[in-house]
């Protein structure tokens, strides 16, 4: 695009950050050398989204190639020369780093027969609301997909250098958190968990529990003080 680019990447090992750093550094060096300049090309860290492949990757692939046309930068997706569309659609040779087989296999086991339905799929240009399933800005998938990754996401909840929305992507809904309350003491523990671990606001808890925010604050503070006292013993 005019000020950013999109990549659909599959990596079997957790080396995306190293790969993106290498890609951006090499491109910057080459551009500066060609233009006889010395400056940054990209500013800030890249944004990554983990996608449920079986459910959303096909729709996301269409979203990416349609971006230039939807932004009125070209009349047709095939006119954007930096896109992978033409290679996937069989209109030009595919580069060595570009994988088109999986995408085409969603339409036919025979790649040559898959090209036509793939073109038709992109040309439909349906505005599917895929981003409604985006959780915490980093997970694109339904609840089951998010739940499968919950244990890994809990590992980063206390890493404050990671944006809050990403750290808390796996937090439960308030309905789930307070669904099995058995006593006032149990509810108090859940209130403490909501405010301290999941960073739920007092206003959100007030609306959900129908308790005054000062009451919620006192409960959370009392539980926290009790835990700190036990830690000192």
Could you walk me through the main structural features you see in this protein, from its secondary elements to its overall organization?
The chain is mainly alpha-helical and 233 residues long. The protein has a domain of 63 residues. A three-stranded mixed beta sheet has the order 1-3-2. Helix 11 packs across helix 12. The longest helix is centred in the first third of the chain and has 20 residues.
Give the integer mean of the pLDDT values: 83
The percentage helix is 40-55%
Given as residue ranges, the uncertain stretches (5+ residues, pLDDT < 50) are none
The structure class reads mainly alpha
Keyword list:
mainly alpha, 3% strand, 233 residues
Secondary-structure topology with pairs:
Blueprint: H1 16-35, E1 50-51, H2 53-70, H3 85-88, H4 101-105, H5 111-123, E2 134-135, E3 139-140, H6 143-148, H7 150-154, H8 164-167, H9 174-177, H10 184-197, H11 202-209, H12 213-232
Parallel strand pairs: 1-3
Antiparallel strand pairs: 2-3
Describe the structure concisely for a colleague.
The protein is mainly α. Helices cover 52% and strands 3% of the residues. It has a 3-stranded mixed sheet.
């Amino acid at each position: 695009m005019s000020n950013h680019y999109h990549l659909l990447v599959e990596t079997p090992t957790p080396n995306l950050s190293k790969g993106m750093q290498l890609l951006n550094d090499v491109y910057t060096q080459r551009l500066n050398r060609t233009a006889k300049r010395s400056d940054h090309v990209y500013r800030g860290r890249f944004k990554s989204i983990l996608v449920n492949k079986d459910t959303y990757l096909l729709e996301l692939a269409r979203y990416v190639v349609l971006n230039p046309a939807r932004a009125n930068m070209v009349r047709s997706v095939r006119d954007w020369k930096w896109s992978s569309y033409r290679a996937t659609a069989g209109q030009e040779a595919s580069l060595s780093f570009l994988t088109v087989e999986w995408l085409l296999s969603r339409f036919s086991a025979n790649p040559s027969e898959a090209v036509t339905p793939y073109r038709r799929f992109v040309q439909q240009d349906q505005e599917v609301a895929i981003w409604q399933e985006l959780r915490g800005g980093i997970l694109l998938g339904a609840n089951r997909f998010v739940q499968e990754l919950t244990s890994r996401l809990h590992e980063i909840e206390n890493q404050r250098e990671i944006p809050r929305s990403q750290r808390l992507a796996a937090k439960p809904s308030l309905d789930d958190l307070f669904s099995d309350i058995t006593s006032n003491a149990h509810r108090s523990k859940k209130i403490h968990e909501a405010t301290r671990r999941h960073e739920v606001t007092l206003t959100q808890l007030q609306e959900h529990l129908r308790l005054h925010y000062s009451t919620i604050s006192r409960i959370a503070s009392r539980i926290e003080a009790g835990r700190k006292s036990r830690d000192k013993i």
